[in-house]
Write a structure and sequence with these properties.
single chain, 402 residues, mainly alpha
C-alpha cells in the first residue's frame, strides 16, 4: 500500500475514535449526568433521543453533502462541528444547552460513515477493501473500548466536564489536519472500478438493493445502539457495578467486537477472492453472523458478571462484524457516485430504528422484564438477514436503471 493510504487509515482511525468516544460520554456518565441536571431515566432517554433524532434527520443528507462538497471540505466541517458541540456541552450549565449540544452532535456525526465509505472505495482495492475499511472503522470500536476506562478516569480525576472538553479539543485539531492534508486520488491512484454512472437521487429509491440494505439497518441497528447507550447503564443499574468497576470491565465487549469485526472483514475479503462473487460471499458471512444474533437472548439468564461480559462480547462481535461486511457490499452493488448516499440513507434508517428502540427498551424492560427485551433484540439480525436475502440476492438480477 502507498504511504498516502496508510496516512488516510490513520486519519480515519483517529476521527472514528473520537466519533464514538463523544457518543459514549453520555452513556458512561449516565448516573453523573442524571444527578448533575436532576433528571430520571425518562429525562435521560429524552437527551438520547434528541441526539438520535437529529442524527437520523441529518444522516440521509450527509452522503449527498459529501458527494457535492467533496470529502476534504465536508469532513473538515462535520468533524469540526461535532467536536465543538462536545466541547461546549462540557462547559454548559443548563440542561437545555447540554441537550442542544447533543442535538448538534447528532447533526454532525453522521458524516463520518459516508465519508469513510466514499474514501475507501476510491482509495482501497476491492481485494482488501473490507479489511482496510474495518481498520479505519476500528478506531470507532477502540473509542468504544476506551470510553469506559478513559471517561471514568477523567471524570474521577478531574470532573465530568473535563471528559467532554478534552475530546472536543482533540477533534478540532484533527479537523484542521484533515483539511490541510487530504486530497482525492488522481488517475492511477483511483482504486474504484466504476463502470456505472451515478444514479440520480430519485433513481436510487427504485433499486431493490437499496431497500434491502436500508431495511436491514432499520431492523438490526437497535442492537448496536443498545450496546452504545444502554449497556453501560445495564452494568451499573442491573448488575450493580460502580463507575470505577464499570471502567474495569465495560470496555471488554467493545474490544471483543472490534477484534471480531476485523476478523469478519478479513474473512469477507478472502471469501470474495475465492468465490469471485463479492455479493454472494458477503451475504454468506452475514447469514452466519445473523445466526449468532440470538446470543443476546441469554444475557439476562447469566448468573454472574463474567458470563454477562462474555455474552455481551459475542453480541458486539455480531454487530460490528455485520457492519464490517455490509459496508463494503454497498461498493459492490452501487456506483462510486452513490456509495456515500446509500450508506447515509441506510444509516438514517438505522438511527430511526434505534430511536424507536430507545423508547421501547425502557418500556419493555419495565413492563415485561429484561428477559423479553433481550429476546426481541436477539432476533433482529435474523429478520434483517431475511430482508437482505429477498431484496439483494433474489433481486440482484435487476440491474440499476435510471
Amino acid at each position: 500500500m502507498t504511504r498516502q493510504v496508510w496516512w488516510l487509515l490513520a486519519l480515519l482511525f483517529g476521527a472514528a475514535f473520537l466519533n464514538f468516544l463523544d457518543r459514549q460520554l453520555l452513556s458512561v456518565l449516565k448516573p453523573t449526568i442524571k444527578s448533575e441536571f436532576g433528571i430520571d431515566d425518562q429525562g435521560y432517554a429524552l437527551i438520547v433521543n434528541v441526539f438520535t433524532f437529529t442524527y437520523a434527520a441529518a444522516y440521509m443528507g450527509t452522503g449527498w453533502v459529501v458527494e457535492r462538497l467533496g470529502a476534504r471540505l465536508a469532513y473538515a466541517l462535520f468533524l469540526g462541528g461535532w467536536s465543538l458541540a462536545t466541547l461546549v456541552g462540557g462547559l454548559s450549565r443548563s440542561l437545555a444547552v447540554f441537550t442542544g449540544c447533543r442535538g448538534v452532535l447528532g447533526l454532525m456525526e453522521p458524516a463520518h460513515a459516508p465519508t469513510t465509505v466514499r474514501v475507501s472505495v476510491m482509495w482501497f482495492p476491492l481485494s482488501r477493501r473490507a479489511f482496510l475499511m474495518s481498520v479505519a472503522a476500528w478506531g470507532g470500536t477502540i473509542g468504544a473500548v476506551a470510553a469506559a476506562p478513559l471517561i471514568s478516569w477523567m471524570a474521577l480525576t478531574w470532573s465530568w466536564r473535563v471528559a467532554f472538553v478534552v475530546p472536543g479539543l482533540a477533534g478540532l485539531i484533527l479537523a484542521v489536519v484533515w483539511w490541510v492534508t487530504y486530497r482525492d486520488p488522481q488517475g492511477h491512484e483511483l482504486q474504484a472500478v466504476d463502470s456505472m454512472p451515478a444514479l440520480p437521487w430519485t433513481g436510487l429509491w427504485r433499486q431493490p438493493a437499496l431497500w434491502g440494505i436500508v431495511l436491514a439497518r432499520l431492523i438490526s441497528d437497535p442492537l448496536w445502539y443498545f450496546c452504545l447507550f444502554w449497556m453501560p447503564g445495564y452494568f451499573q443499574e442491573q448488575r450493580g457495578l460502580s463507575l470505577k468497576a464499570l471502567g474495569m470491565v465495560g470496555w471488554i465487549p467493545f474490544l471483543a467486537g472490534s477484534l471480531g469485526g476485523l476478523a469478519c472483514a478479513a474473512v469477507s475479503d478472502r471469501m470474495v477472492r475465492r468465490m469471485r462473487d463479492p455479493v454472494k460471499a458477503r451475504l454468506v458471512l452475514l447469514a452466519i453472523l445473523a445466526a449468532l444474533g440470538p446470543t443476546a437472548c441469554l444475557v439476562p439468564l447469566s448468573p454472574g458478571l463474567a458470563g454477562t461480559v462474555i455474552l455481551l462480547s459475542m453480541v458486539a462481535v455480531v454487530c460490528l462484524g455485520w457492519f464490517a461486511v455490509l459496508g463494503p457490499m454497498v461498493g459492490d452493488v452501487f456506483p462510486l457516485g452513490n456509495v456515500a448516499s446509500v450508506w447515509a440513507i441506510a444509516g438514517t434508517f438505522g438511527a430511526v430504528g434505534a430511536m424507536g428502540s430507545n423508547f421501547a427498551i425502557g418500556r419493555v424492560s419495565t413492563v415485561l422484564g429484561t428477559e423479553r427485551m433481550f429476546l426481541i433484540l436477539g432476533c433482529l439480525h435474523l429478520i434483517a438477514m431475511a430482508v437482505l436475502y429477498l431484496f439483494v440476492w433474489r433481486m440482484r438480477s435487476s440491474a440499476p436503471s435510471r
